[in-house]
Design a protein that fits this description.
This protein has two domains: 10-79 and 237-242 and 252-391, Beta-lactamase; 82-215, no CATH class. The protein has twelve helices and 15 strands. It has helices at 21-28, 32-43, 79-94, 130-135, 168-171, 202-216, 220-227, 229-232, 260-271, 284-290, 354-357, 377-391, and strands spanning 49-55, 58-65, 143-148, 151-153, 177-178, 184-185, 198-200, 237-239, 256-258, 275-276, 279-280, 307-308, 322-326, 330-335, 340-345. The strands form five sheets. A six-stranded antiparallel β-sheet has the order 2-1-15-14-13-12, sandwiched between helices. A three-stranded antiparallel β-sheet has the order 4-3-7, with no helix packed on it. Helix 3 (79-94) runs parallel beside helix 6 and helix 3 (79-94) crosses helix 7 (220-227). The longest helix is centred in the first third of the chain and has 16 residues, at 79-94. The radius of gyration is 20 Å and the shape is globular. It starts with 20 loop residues before the first helix and ends with a helix.
Length: 393
C-alpha cells in the first residue's frame, strides 16, 4: 500500500495543491468547471462562504465569497457537534476503564458527569447509553420533527436549541425556558424511553461535552487543543457563542470556529480512519461507526454526530458519504469511495464577529450588499455535494 500523504501545518507549507484545471482533470479526474458550478450554486444559499475540495490528498479547489476567506474562522454552528464526537472517541481510548461497555456504557453516573447533572430530572436518564446519547436516540428532547422507526412524530414540549441547548443547567433539565409564543423548551423529562426514538437534541451532545470536561478536568476546547489540534497542525481557532450564557464553558452542541484549511485537515483525518501520520488520533472503530447508520439509532440515519447515507437516504449521493451541517449554511462532507473531502463554508454576518468567536474579523472588502437567497439551506446541503461528486469524472 502506498504511503498516505498528510499535509503539514500552514506555517510549514500547508496542503499540496493543483491549481491548473488541466492538471486537476488529468491527475485527479475532476472537472473544475463542475466544481465552479457547485460553487456558484452554493453562493445562492449563503451570503458568505466558500467551497473547498481535497481529492487524493491534493487541494484541488478553493474559492470564497462575502466574508469568507482562507483565514476566516466564523462560528460554524452544529458542525461543532462533530468535534465533540471526535473528542468523545479520543476520550474513550484514553480512559478505557470508564468505558468497559464501550458505547453501551451508561453515562448518567457521578463517575461520568459533574454534580450539576444530579439528581436526575427523570430517573429514566440513568438507562441512557453513550451510544444513544451520541446518536440522539436517548429520549432527550430536541427539535421537531422527531422520528420513530423512520416515521415522523411531533413532540411537545420541544427541547432547547441554539446556545440555550449548550448551557449546563438547561442541558441537564434544571432550567426551563419559555419562547416568545409562550411555548416551553425543556429537557426535564424524556420524550420516549431511551432508544425509543430520534430527536435532534443539542442538549444531548452538550451533555457529552460535560462528560469530557468532568473526566479530563479541563474544558472540551482545551482537550481538543491538547489531543487533536497540535497533531493535525491547526492554526488559530476557537469556539463561538462567547457572548451568551453558553460561553461559560465550551459549548459542546456547536460553535466550532476553525479556519478552512484546518477543517479540511479534520475531514481528512476522518477519511483516513482517524489516523494522522503515525498516530491513531481517533480510534478507527469509532470513525467507522460514525460513518454508517448506527444500531443505537434505528429511527433515522444519524450516527455519532454525522448524517450517513449508508442506507440510501439520498440516492443521488454515494452510499458511503457522510456529512454534518451547521447553522448558517455550513456543511462538512466525507466521501471515502471518491477519496474526497469537501467543506462548504457558510455563515451569517454575525457568525464572523469577534463578539461571537473571540477572534478578530477579517475584512475581505466583499459585503455582497443586496444579496438574496436563491437556494434554501436544506436543498443546498445535499445539492452542493451532489454537484461536487458529479464533477468527479
Amino acid at each position: 500500500m502506498a504511503d498516505v500523504y498528510y499535509p503539514p501545518s500552514d506555517a510549514d507549507g500547508g496542503w499540496r495543491a493543483l491549481k491548473s484545471a488541466r492538471k486537476v482533470r488529468k491527475q485527479m479526474n475532476v472537472d473544475v468547471e463542475g466544481l465552479d458550478a457547485a460553487f456558484e450554486y452554493a453562493k445562492g444559499s449563503t451570503k458568505n462562504g466558500g467551497l473547498l475540495v481535497v481529492r487524493h490528498g491534493h487541494l484541488i479547489y478553493e474559492q470564497y465569497f462575502g466574508k469568507g476567506c482562507r483565514d476566516a474562522a466564523p462560528n460554524q454552528g452544529s458542525c461543532g457537534k462533530s468535534f465533540t464526537s471526535i473528542a468523545v472517541g479520543v476520550l474513550m481510548d484514553e480512559y478505557p476503564e470508564l468505558f468497559p461497555d464501550g458505547l453501551d456504557q451508561k453515562v448518567f453516573r457521578t463517575t461520568h458527569l459533574p454534580p450539576r447533572a444530579f439528581p436526575l430530572t427523570d430517573k429514566r436518564k440513568a438507562e441512557i447509553t453513550l451510544g444513544q446519547l451520541m446518536t440522539f436516540s436517548g429520549g432527550i428532547r430536541g427539535n421537531n420533527p422527531c422520528y420513530v422507526n423512520g416515521e415522523e412524530v411531533e413532540i411537545d414540549p420541544v427541547g432547547p436549541d441554539g446556545w440555550q441547548g449548550m448551557e449546563d443547567e438547561r442541558a441537564a433539565g434544571k432550567l426551563e425556558d419559555a419562547g416568545p409564543n409562550g411555548q416551553t423548551y425543556s429537557v426535564k423529562e424524556l420524550w420516549c424511553e431511551p432508544g425509543g426514538g430520534y430527536s435532534f437534541a443539542t442538549a444531548s451532545i452538550h451533555i457529552a461535552s460535560m462528560m469530557v470536561r468532568h473526566i479530563t478536568e479541563r474544558e472540551l476546547e482545551q482537550y481538543l487543543r491538547d489531543r487533536v489540534a497540535p497533531v493535525l497542525g491547526w492554526g488559530t481557532w476557537s469556539f463561538g457563542y462567547r457572548h451568551t450564557d453558553a460561553g461559560k464553558h465550551t459549548p459542546g452542541g456547536g460553535g466550532i470556529a476553525i479556519r478552512a484549511m484546518d477543517m479540511m485537515r479534520t475531514l481528512y483525518l476522518l477519511l483516513q480512519g482517524g489516523r494522522w501520520g503515525d498516530q491513531q488520533v481517533v480510534p478507527e472503530w469509532y470513525v467507522d461507526h460514525a460513518s454508517k447508520v448506527s444500531p443505537y439509532n434505528p429511527h433515522y440515519p444519524y450516527s455519532l454526530q454525522f448524517t450517513c447515507n449508508s442506507t440510501g437516504l439520498d440516492p443521488d449521493l454515494p452510499t458511503d458519504a457522510y456529512w454534518k451541517a451547521g447553522s448558517g449554511g455550513h456543511a462538512m462532507y466525507v466521501v471515502p469511495s471518491l477519496d474526497m473531502v469537501v467543506w462548504k463554508l457558510g455563515g451569517r454576518d454575525e457568525q464572523f464577529t469577534e463578539r461571537n468567536t473571540g477572534l478578530s474579523e477579517i475584512d475581505t472588502g466583499d459585503d455582497r450588499e443586496g444579496w438574496e437567497k436563491t437556494v434554501e439551506d436544506g436543498e443546498a446541503l445535499r445539492g452542493t455535494l451532489k454537484r461536487v461528486c458529479e464533477a468527479a469524472v
